[in-house]
Write a structure and sequence with these properties.
Jelly Rolls; 2 domains; nine-stranded antiparallel beta sheet; 22 strands; 3% helix; 52% strand
């Protein structure tokens, strides 16, 4: 069983021939030739999207219109206790299959999976990324004054103007209740990321409570 946009395949009375959502995303790279030398240098540029196909049997032919509306556009795919963003943009045909209906649907999936129940958790001297690939978490700092800290070797300081701040390391943005607080942070070009396993946290000065979500990530 899988869910898309919070609606399960059981509810929609569809069965996938193979619920084969697991795949490793391709790594994008730049190839740089070196004049006078054999071979090239490959520079990694992050991960690309996954493109696959879902072969569905529609058990209740009266639900064809609902299925067409359901598997349309973008939304969260939930599978085996994890979620990823999926895009159903291509058109598809619905064909007769014995007494049922059948549809082969192409989709695009983001490269990473996260936990379904991904809420803030308290962290202190270290934080554990339970996944198998680096993550770029959302960090919530609760405190006052100025705190100077390092997370997995990335050092920054933040001056509180509000009770808390949320630092989105993926988008490199700092907000309080949706309002930008980028003027309050001093940080270099790189934001904290978490490698699989334990990552150290060091408070150099000041005090605050540290919470994180989206800390666990899987390919």
């Amino acid at each position: 069983m899988f869910k898309f946009k919070g609606i399960s395949s059981d509810q929609m009375k569809v069965i996938a021939k193979e619920e084969d959502f697991i795949a490793r995303a391709p790594q994008r790279f730049e190839e740089v030739p070196i004049e006078g030398s054999d071979g090239t240098i490959l520079i990694p540029l992050g991960y690309g999207q996954i493109q696959k196909e879902l072969d569905l049997q529609i058990l209740d032919v009266n639900k064809v219109d609902e299925v067409l509306s359901w598997l349309n556009g973008e939304g969260e795919l939930e599978f085996n206790g994890r979620v990823s963003k999926v895009y159903f943009y291509d058109g598809f045909d619905v064909n007769r299959f014995i007494t049922l209906k059948r549809a082969k649907i192409s989709y695009i999936r983001d490269p990473f999976w996260y936990k379904v129940d991904d809420a803030y958790v308290d962290v202190a001297i270290s934080v554990n990324n339970e996944g198998n690939i680096y993550s770029k978490p959302t960090i919530k700092l609760i405190g006052s004054g100025t705190v100077d800290m390092s997370i997995n070797g990335i050092r920054f300081n933040y001056s509180f103007a509000d009770p808390f701040v949320e630092i989105d390391c993926e988008r490199m943005k700092e907000t309080y209740n949706g309002l930008s607080r980028s003027r309050n942070i001093e940080i270099g070009l790189e934001y904290p990321h978490l490698i699989p396993g334990n990552n150290p946290i060091v408070i150099h000065s000041g005090t605050c409570t540290i919470q994180m979500k989206r800390k666990d990530r899987w390919l």
